[in-house]
Amino acid sequence: MTFSFKTRQTNIQQAKDQTLDLLVIGGGITGAGVAVQAAAAGMKIALVEMQDFAEGTSSRSTKLVHGGIRYLKTFDVEVVADTVKERANVQKIAPHIPKPDPMLMPIYDEPGATFNLFSVKVAMDLYDQLAGVTGTRYANYLLTKEEVLAREPQLSADNLQGGGVYLDFRNNDARLVIENIKQAQADGGMMISRAKVTDILHDETGRAIGATVEDLVTGETFTIHAHVIINTTGPWSDKVRNLDSKNDLPEQMRPTKGVHLVVNRSKLSVPQPTYFDTGKNDGRMVFVVPREEKTYFGTTDTDYHGDLNHPQVEQSDVDYLLDIVNHRFPEAHIKLEDIESSWAGLRPLISGNGGSDYNGGNNGTMTEESFQRVVHAVEHYLDNPSTRDKVEQAIQEVESSIDNSINPSQVSRGSSLEVSQDGLLTLAGGKITDYRLMAEGALAKIQEILAKDFQKTYVLIDSTVYPVSGGKINPQRVDEELAELAKLAEAKGLNEKDALYLAHLYGSNLPTVLTYEEPIEGLSARDSYSLNYALHEESVLTPTDYFMRRTNFILFIRDELDAIKMPVINKMKAFFNWTEEETAKHTADLEAVVAESDLKKLKELGQ
């Protein structure tokens, strides 16, 4: 199978020439999850995405498959149970992407603290039970103040009580999307990037039967007809609904903006992901995460009303995060000029859902006795699900003071599946960890509609065991199997570090990657294999696609980017047969993205 710009043209032609079972609008993680399950079930399916796959939101997360331990302090036991269960499912179907990476939570005695040492231990024990890791090497443990400082000597000692360590997973969000997209394509789906829906089509009865689509590469406008249409556009969900003249559902999205900043590890060194209250008594928490040779930190969480296509890091975001990180790590002295790269992304939150996100939540206090009652009730629930009413009763009886106002950090990450009167489905909300489960629910509804209204019967796959592209690895032996795959690259002459890099990036697809042996002038063997594979098998259309979303050069390997960007552009020019004008445009687009990630304008204003 190849999946290139040539495949794209074939996909468009095939999508135009037939009535599909399903048209998916939106190629982030939600749409990709729907697509892979639909294609695996044998449905005739096309997916259209107006940007690159994962460009809008799904490459701009905190890059964790987070378990949501903070939910436990705000009573969302069922949310945590679902989240950790889904995290395990994602690790099974994409074992080369999410990797276990235990999280350290330093505990400070200060106003608005999420946990104290007692309550964090209770929460972690409950969390371990829900995650099924009690008694394993990933079981939680407490650290004394001295042990926390020995592990992270840059941390502030003021008011530090100690810390807790519990299981979490790091993630490569954009890679998770493209591996789902590739699998859907391999299973017969038509995956089309840079194709924008401009209108929803209806038959004479008013039923939604397709969409008008603009090819943003060629300028062509065409139509796709389908029995079922599903809107999976995240923050753009309301905009797509508004394209549908027959839609009868109200707007529901309340996007918030999150920002992350990247510095060299020498400026801020942590041995593992670290998660702490901001210290501002504002209901937010901040991550500090080691990645490659860098450390990144975030996130802010503010309501967003700007251009959905182009959220940006602003000076206020930088000031907020630097203030927090320099307070927690007082010897770091991080300044604007130390920031090597950055990203801003939108969370597709659903308005009106009070509750807690992992980054924020209710600041109401709860007595330890009440918290213990919840814990004991949940323990019984795990042994006997029929006692769920006792969990609900314990929660209702909890002594707490709850602020009924909903700030941006308190909007639920819950998802919703709604059907408009004309049949348009909208699957919105949620988070990356839940994408498979969200898609499973949507597929059940799509299956029902196809059977009832079109007499078309499909048997759905068990998506908890259906690996994505690159994921044909035993999830119990990930490190061992990736090391074995890396030996194949070493046999081609790559050093151990580069071989492991490719194995972790491509998983079980590495043997295919290594068939693309053509050397590229100006690139190492590692990067030649990577770029050739991306062009032929990962539907890369621009240099930014490659540097930002198929690899992490812009964000985490910034040091190497300047030396290889022209060799990559020159290869693309030849591969796509670009004119000088087209090459100049793509080069300028890349330079603009890099300058924005570098915070070039903010740095110039600060001089």
UniProtKB/TrEMBL annotation:
Protein name: Alpha-glycerophosphate oxidase
Alphabetical list of PANTHER family matching this protein: ANAEROBIC GLYCEROL-3-PHOSPHATE DEHYDROGENASE SUBUNIT A (PTHR11985:SF35), GLYCEROL-3-PHOSPHATE DEHYDROGENASE (PTHR11985)
Family matches, as SUPFAM superfamilies: FAD-linked reductases, C-terminal domain (SSF54373), FAD/NAD(P)-binding domain (SSF51905)
EC number: 1.1.3.21
Species lineage: Bacteria, Bacillati, Bacillota, Bacilli, Lactobacillales
NCBIfam families: glycerol3P_ox_1 (NF033461)
Catalyzed chemical reaction(s): sn-glycerol 3-phosphate + O2 = dihydroxyacetone phosphate + H2O2
Cofactor(s) needed: FAD
